[in-house]
Amino acid sequence: MNRIKKLLGVFIFALLLLSLPSLASAQRRDDNRDNGFYNAAQLKNAINRLRNDSRDFAKFVDRDLDKSQYNGRNREDNLNQLAKDFRDAASRLASRFGNGRNWNNASSEAQNVIRLGNRVDRAMKRVQLSQNVEDYWQNIDNQLEEISRAYNRRSGWRS
Length: 159
Known about the structure:
There is one protein chain. The chain is mainly α. The termini are far apart. The protein has two domains: 1-32; 38-150, no CATH class. The protein has five helices and no strands. Helices cover 77% and strands 0% of the residues.
């Protein structure tokens, strides 16, 4: 009987040791959502690029609108404010995401950036600005797509 207890104890201990790596990797997948496409470092890079590009984008939009037919109109004010709101949201997302240890902390900020990105995208289609602004928006579009896919929005950021 004593021998059976020892064998059972060894068996349970071995089973526990064998299951620890799978438990650890499951926890890592939950924390980082490392699904083979994105990991924390890739997403952090996209978020930081978005933060930087959204700053430049807001400056370029302001400058272009001052030189455009929209200068002094409500449309200029609205688009400038929208670009600034988007810039601020991208900064909050970068701040909330931090080093990427817990993606869930930044989920609501990511959704907010995507929502504002949709608004800016619609507004950009109604005005004609310089190629420089259009190019910056294309970079931002790519980054929003990366962030959207990382947060499992299968239909893309525009939906």
